[in-house]
Structures are given as structure tokens and as C-alpha cells.
Amino acid sequence: MKIKIMLVEDDEALANEIKQFLEKWGYQAVTARRFDDIVSEYASHMPHLVFMDVNLPYYDGFYWCKKIRDISDVPILYISSRSDDKDKIMAIAQGGDDYVEKPFHLELLKAKMEAVLRRTYQYRVVGRRHLGGDLYFEEEDSAIVFQGGKLDLTKSEKKIISKLLEQKPRVATREELMMELWSTDEFVSDGTLTTMICRLRNKLKEACGKEVICTKKGQGYYIT
Hey, what CATH class is 4-122 in? Predict the structure, then answer.
């Protein structure tokens, strides 16, 4: 599966230049079109990393970074002509992972991007992942922790939640989830998977009061 990069850049010529450069190196690149609703664009693409310009129509990149941070920990790398230290501090404060000043060499942009991707996906620290409210997933022993206690999950439900978190922010396809479950002692059919997801979704929602597992129609499921 190719790594997908989302470009939030209103300079169409620059966006296309970066897109073509990334595709030349084997990445999948998509460009934002609806600058009045970047969050919906993000949710429809579910990229592995976002390039975020600061000066944008409607709302600036700081605003959209914060909005994306409300729903995802996807790495966000700012690309901006603003060189003031205050802007860089604001970028990090709003949840950005790095900041590249325009104009820049595309090779530098690629190097920064790949460093962020390595930190995010290859060297993720094993620990506690927040799922919503007082609900957490402890990666070391695959346990769901809720208000100091542990939520009762089946072996298969733990497998599902682990796979969804492993894929986050990407979608885990039904095929990937079924392959994960087949490594347990029980055979899982397509219908059985649907039932399991439904039960797990309801169990998590009842505990923390929010949807934790979402459906990507025709593809699979993802963690919000």
C-alpha cells in the first residue's frame, strides 16, 4: 500500500509541483479542493501525512490543524512563507509536527516528510492510546482501560481494536480484519465480522459516550 500524502495548498501550481514530485518517488498524493471544509477532505482521504499551508482561504492553516487534531493524530507538516518565530511557535502549539519555510527545495521537503513518517509509524512508543472520554487502550497487554478498571472484551474484539489502532488514521479493510481474526481459534465469516464490529462499537460507545469505530462505506473501518 502506498503512503498517502494530502496537500492543503491553495497555490495550485505549487500543489501540482509537489504532487508530481511525490508521485515520482512512489508516494500517493492528493490535493485539497474544498478550502471551506478541510476536515471533510481529510476524512474522505485519510492520509498518512498532511502538508498544511498557513495562508489559506476562509480559515488559516493553524485553524485547520487544530480541527484535524480534534479527530486524529496524523502527522502535519506546515509549508509556509511566514518566517516569524511566532508563527512557528503557533504551528507547533496547534499540533504541527514540523515547519518548512517557502521557498524550499523539494528534496528538503521530502527529507523532512520522511523523518516525520519514520517517527510516527516506525518508532511509535508502546503505551496507552486514548479512545475517548475515560477510555484507553493499553498496547502492551491489549487491554481496554475505563475509569481505572478494565473493560471486558473478547479475544477477537481485542484483535479488532489492535488492528484498527495499528492502521490509524488509515482504514482497516474488512479483508485485513478477517485475516487478523483467522489467526485466532475461531473461523470468522463476513457476517460474523459485521456482528463483532457492531457489538464492539456499541460496547465502546456505551463506555465513553462517543463513536470510537467509524465505517468507511465500501472499504472498512477506522478509529476516530
Answer: alpha beta
Among 89, 37, 99, 90, residue whose Cα is nearest residue 68: 37
- Whole-number Cα distances in Å, 187 to 158, 176, 183, 196: 16, 14, 9, 13
C-alpha cell at 173: 479493510
**Residue range 31-43, pLDDT digits in tens:** 998 889 999 999 8
What's the CA gap between 57 and 6, in Å, rounded?
Answer: 17
CA–CA gap between residue 214 and residue 171 (Å, rounded): 9
Listed by start position, the domains of the chain span 4-122, 153-223
User: How far, in Å, are 52, 115, 144, 145, 179 from residue 121 at the CA level?
Assistant: 19, 10, 22, 23, 21
Look up the pTM and report it.
0.55
pLDDT tens-digit series, residues 156-204: 888 898 888 888 778 999 988 888 887 655 667 888 889 999 999 998 8
Domain 153-223 falls under CATH 2.40.30.260: no
DSSP 142: T
